[in-house]
């Protein structure tokens, strides 16, 4: 497994320069490192912030699983989407509100054809709400298909 978490991960994360706002580090409740977050009040409705994970060593014709923690806290906080590069510009994963403030786990299968996926983008879209945040943490890449729950 490749640990791409923000506090001590080995992966290459980049802020997209063409978006409307950046993702910023936020301290975890337990004080153990940090996660990346977009507070609800940043930007204007429909503004986007994109955080890109650059992937270099994925082998062609193999499958991987991207596992991550996410949280959509707050009323009408917006949307969190995940895109894989080299694929259609439609998200492979999307969530638009949390039932509660809890962290949940997202899983995405990445199938490599002859062309390999060289990046994964986490996109936050600003909603109508003024409180809460969208957060992402504990991003891990493992070989093979995603395990069933």
UniProtKB/TrEMBL annotation:
It comes from the Eukaryota. This is EGFL6 protein. Residues 2-148 form the MAM domain. PROSITE patterns: MAM_2. Pfam families: MAM. CDD domains: MAM. The gene is Egfl6_1. GO terms for cellular component: membrane. Gene3D superfamilies: 2.60.120.200.
